[in-house]
Structures are given as C-alpha cells and as structure tokens.
Records
---
Amino acid sequence: MIFFQAVADTTAVADGAESLSVFEVLWKGGPVMVPIVLMSIIAVYIFVERFYTIKNAQKTPQSFMNSIRDYVVSGNIPAAKSLCEETDSPIARMVEKGIQRLGKPLKNIDVAIENVGKLELYRLEKRLHIMATISGAAPMIGFLGTVLGMIQAFFEMSNAGNNIDPGMLAGGIYQAMVTTAAGLTVGIIAFLGYNYLVTMVENVVHKMEATSVDFIDLLNEPA
C-alpha cells in the first residue's frame, strides 16, 4: 500500500491539482485490479499464518532430546512418551512415533520416523504453493491490464480520426501503468515472502533430520 500511496502523491503536478487517494488509484486501474488486490490480501494472509505456524514448529526446547535420552536409557518409556505428548512440535511427534515402535527392528523404527517427518513437512508447506502461484500470476495479470489499457487507448485514437486529444488517451494509458505497477509489486512481495518461508521450513527440516539421527543413534548405543 505504501507503493500505491507514493503513486497517488505524484499526481499533484500542477497548481490546484488534487492528489488521488490509494483507493482512487486502484479504481483507476480498472477491473483487472480486482484479482490483483484479492491476490495481495491472500498472499499477506498466507504469509502471516505460515510464518507463525513455522516459527512455533521451531520452538522445540534444547533440553528435549537430553530428557528423552535420560528416560530411554533409564527405561522410563512412559515418561518419554508423556514428554513427547506435552511438546507440540514436529520433532516431538517424530520421536513419539519412534518410541511407540521400540522393540521392533531399527529399520522399521527409522521408516516410521521418516513417514511422520514427511507428514510434518507437508503440514509446514501447506498453502505455500498458493504464494508461489501468486508471485507469478500477479505480474501476468498486471501485464494483461496493460494490454487492455493500450487497446483502449488505440481504440480511442482510431475513433478520434484526425482530432486526437491527449486527454482521450489518458484513461487507457493510466490503466496500463497502474495495473503493471500493481501486478509487479504484488508479485515481488509474494515471491520474497515465499522464499523466506521456504527458508524457514528448510531450517525446521534440518532440525528434524538431526533429531532423527540422534534418536536412532541413541537406540544403537549398547545397553
């Protein structure tokens, strides 16, 4: 919205000229602005929701695996399960699945942990593909608005014949510029937000993989 406000402020270029509000600028963009604005709202919602979801997934206490190690080594399996149930994180759910498989071959335990990890990764990446789609679709829709605006401008020129008035062309050109700028702005922001969230997910996955290895190593230790 800061970008659109800056665009609006630049319209006051002559004495007595009135600057346009953000909503007036958006309105001047024509019908193509509707999907662009909707995509911007969706992108912001997904980013905020995913940001806090992924951030909470990173909050596994540092002492978690130390406590799990102590419980498993001492044979206090119920306490280990209870700790996993009380800890709301992907890592805790992976370890809990491994504890539930104790007594079975290590390969089976490893596979069970890996399957839970895949499910947790799916939950973390939920709706991220929508942001990726918006990052590519918003600029394209903006360019569509540009084409439509230029078509309108040339249509006005063809109807005017030799009496071409620059004011007749202003509407089409204005629409072309606004939709292009809006589409690019939404696309860039969605692209940056998507990549930031992907980086956060990769950090969580790295911790999940490290914890999985630590847990399997714990089970491989001699009694």
Note: The chain has two domains: 2-56+127-206, 60-125+208-220.
---
Amino acid sequence: MLVFLWGLLTFVFVWVWHVFPHQTLISVATYLALFYLVLLTPLILGQALREGPTTSHRIMGAVAAYLLLGLIWSLIYYAITLHIPGAFKGLKAFTEGDSEVLYTHFQYFSFTVLTTIGFGDIVPVAPIARMAAATRRWAKIEAS
C-alpha cells in the first residue's frame, strides 16, 4: 500500500512539474520518482527470487527489476546534474525547458553503463558523478 501511495504522489508531482516547470518541482519530482523506484524494485525482485519453480512470470519480474535498476541510476545521474551542472561531459547544453531531453540522455548513459558497453560519448567529470558511475559498474561486476 505504501508503494502505491508513493507512486500516486510521484505521479501528481510529475504532472504538476509538466504543467508548471520550475526547478524546485523538477527536483522534488525527481527525488519522489527515485524513492518510488527504490521501493518498487525490491518488491518485484523478492517475488521473482522467492522459492519455487521458475516460471515465465518470475523471469519477467527479474527482467523488470534489471530495467528498473537502469531507471534508478538514470534518476541518480539526473539528480546529480540538477545540482551540479556540467557534472557530465558530452551532453548538449540545456535550459530548464529541456529537462526531459536531458533525462533521456541519462537513460541512455545509464543503460550503456549497466550493460558495460560504455561508448564514451557521455563522461562523468565531477567527482560525485564519477563515483556514481564507478559504484554502478562495481555493483554490476560483483553481481555477476
């Protein structure tokens, strides 16, 4: 029930952010969405990894959790850039109106790091951005 209510609150803030784009609303909506996905992922993963036979639903749950990890990290990268503009090199300059385009760049970057492809077109340059990308990569290696 908590996850549902948090998801509803997140949806309302994201909707308000799209109607009234303001930097504070963007930050609040980003953190609400991040916390919602952090709450949702263990629930899905717990159902996928519980004891019992392997079914197609469990496999789909594991894939969904993997994809949610990519979205979580894209929100982390996005939040870093909201507070430290220029934390990543290779992004086109953006204004407040281009925050959606910026987020899609971080989705791309997140999944290239998650899959260890790493094309190198987006590079973390701020220390916290480098730490987030490196932590992400080490978590992937240790899970293997």
Note: Helices lie at 2-19, 23-48, 56-83, 99-114, 127-143.
